[in-house]
From TrEMBL:
<protein>
    <submittedName>
        <fullName>Transporter substrate-binding domain-containing protein</fullName>
    </submittedName>
</protein>
<dbReference type="Pfam" id="PF00497">
    <property type="entry name" value="SBP_bac_3"/>
</dbReference>
<feature type="domain" description="Solute-binding protein family 3/N-terminal">
    <location>
        <begin position="32"/>
        <end position="263"/>
    </location>
</feature>
<dbReference type="InterPro" id="IPR001638">
    <property type="entry name" value="Solute-binding_3/MltF_N"/>
</dbReference>
<feature type="signal peptide">
    <location>
        <begin position="1"/>
        <end position="17"/>
    </location>
</feature>
<keyword id="KW-0732">Signal</keyword>
């Protein structure tokens, strides 16, 4: 009977220990945090033909998880609107999506000290058209339609406001898919399209065999960041250290070369907000 009691006590102790270890996410006491990334934003984050979530940000988050032993990072894929709503409601601790800083966002959320990406805005034109090398050259050119109040619309509008004697004709409308935009330039339906290059643009042009390339210099380079819930100062500090470590080890540059075909960290940031 004494042996049976001892056995029961040992079992109870093991059960309580297991319960204690399950709280907080792992045996090591690591905290579980959840990050949301976009589900169809190649090459940032997307589902491949095997059904696996992958992409630049996905592999970056996995690398961060490896150098942040105090946290277990759980990745969820959602659409961009759901990601931001989830951050607001506390469903997510931080989100990806190649996000810019701006005054409104900075008043509501936390950002890491170091950027983890860059949105490189380029002018795409026919490869045999050397007359277009900057926004100044888009006067009297047919620029592909842009979405009202979108980032490119705001960029072109700001240019026109600063250059009253050299106006770009901004056509509003549906821009179409990335492939459709480049095909319009290739066919001569548009003289140029202004858009980010870090959304798989070069890969699309190559796969379709289009006679399209970029102007000599990018129009604008904006730093992009993860966006963190306002009450997670602890997570921000941990991400700051981890991101800097990956940068020092060359991991950020390695992932950039893999997913963008170039080191986006070589670009000089032209604008923060």
């Amino acid at each position: 009977m004494k042996t049976l009691k001892t056995f029961i006590i040992v079992l109870a102790g093991l059960f309580l220990a297991a319960c204690g270890n399950s709280q907080g996410g792992s045996e090591s006491g690591a905290k579980t945090v959840t990050v949301a990334v976009e589900n169809a934003s190649k090459p940032l984050s997307f589902t491949d033909e095997k059904g696996n979530l992958t992409g630049y940000e996905v592999e970056l988050i996995q690398a961060l998880d490896e150098v942040m032993p105090e946290y277990n990072i759980n990745i969820e894929s959602v659409d961009s609107e759901a990601a931001q709503v989830g951050l607001e409601t506390g469903q997510y601790d931080f989100i990806g999506g190649g996000l810019y800083k701006n005054p409104e966002r900075e008043s509501m959320y936390l950002f890491p000290e170091k950027h983890t990406g860059a949105s490189v805005i380029e002018i795409y034109k026919r490869a045999d058209d050397d007359s277009i090398q900057s926004l100044d050259d888009l006067t009297n050119k047919k620029v592909h339609p842009v979405t009202p109040n979108g980032g490119i619309f705001n960029l072109l509008t700001a240019y026109n406001e600063a250059h009253p004697d050299n106006q770009i004709d901004i056509q509003l409308g549906e821009s179409g898919s990335f492939a459709e935009r480049f095909q319009a330039v290739d066919k001569g339906e548009s003289d140029a399209v202004v858009m980010p290059s870090n959304l798989g643009a070069d890969q699309i042009i190559e796969e379709l065999g289009l006679n399209v390339n970029t102007a000599d210099q990018p129009v604008q380079v904006k730093a992009t960041y993860f966006m963190i819930a306002p009450d997670r100062e602890d997570l921000k500090e941990a991400l700051d250290k981890a991101i800097q470590q990956l940068a020092d080890e060359g991991k950020l540059q390695e992932l950039s070369e893999k997913w963008y075909g170039k080191n986006i960290f070589d670009y000089e940031i032209s604008e923060e907000n």
